[in-house]
């Protein structure tokens, strides 16, 4: 029986190319693919895949919150994060959210297929490059002198709202995207601004860029707009 895969990535060419590569192996079937987290949650409910292969950085709802939503509804579904983000805080947050595997995008196809086979059989998988960092951090906490990530201060919902606002959505349109009320978005936005010590939309965009929640070209466009509107504080 083949492993049923749901592929989630906002890069159309990458997603379609990876679909073709995975489908070329008899023990895998790509049952669906999605470009964002909200679609991914619905596709997972509709197609009940064995494995969801997903990037962390997605438009709208982040990959981390998407993992949590899928796992909450379908705990039997395995999730492998496929990302360029290799820092320890992202790996740790992905595992806390419920991810079963973590693979870097510069991995070989053979490694990716091995990761999906591993999680489908009930095991966990971490790319060697990231597993070394995680193990060393566990054995020698604080030895590298790094500070905790601002991500650790935020809930999954606050991260999603941070990303949506940084992408230029208003409280109302962010609320529509997340299917919550504008007042809920406003409350979460105020909380995350307070937790991160932010004063305006430009600073919010900068922190979203630093955390890898939005792409660099998009962030620069947002910063220009915010600065023109007087959002960048002196």
What is the gist of this entry?
The chain is α/β, with parallel strands linked by helices. The protein has helices at residues 12-23, 37-47, 63-73, 88-97, 109-120, 128-139, 156-166, 171-178, 182-196, 201-210, 216-228; strands spanning 3-8, 28-34, 51-54, 78-83, 101-104, 125-126. Strands 2-1-3-4-5-6 form a 6-stranded parallel sheet, with helices on both faces.
Q: Portion of residues in helices?
A: 40-55%
Number of spatially distinct domains: 2
Largest sheet: 6 strands, parallel
- Total beta strand runs: 6
Q: How much beta, percentage-wise?
A: 5-15%
Radius of gyration: 18 Å
What string, H for helix and E for strand, traces the elements in order? EHEHEHEHEHEHHHHHH
Q: Might you state the CATH topology name of the largest domain? A: Rossmann fold
Taking pLDDT < 50 over at least 5 consecutive residues as the criterion, the unreliable ranges are: 216-234
Return the CATH class of the largest domain.
Alpha Beta
Global outline: globular
**Oligomeric form:** single chain
Query: Taking all residues together, what is the mean pLDDT?
Result: 82
CATH architectural type of the largest domain: 3-Layer(aba) Sandwich
Report the structural category: alpha/beta
**Considering the protein shown, what is the CATH homologous superfamily of the largest domain?**
Response regulator
- Give the count of helical stretches: 11
Termini Cα gap: 61 Å
What strand line-up does the widest sheet have? 2-1-3-4-5-6
Structure description:
By secondary structure, this protein is α/β, with parallel strands linked by helices. It has 2 domains: 137 residues, 3-Layer(aba) Sandwich (Rossmann fold); 79 residues, Arc Repressor Mutant, subunit A (Orthogonal Bundle). Helices cover 53% and strands 12% of the residues. The chain is built from 11 helices and 6 strands. Strands 2-1-3-4-5-6 form a 6-stranded parallel β-sheet, with helices on both faces. Helix 4 links the parallel strand 4 and strand 5. Helix 7 packs across helix 9. The longest helix has 15 residues. It starts with a strand and ends in a 6-residue tail after the last helix.
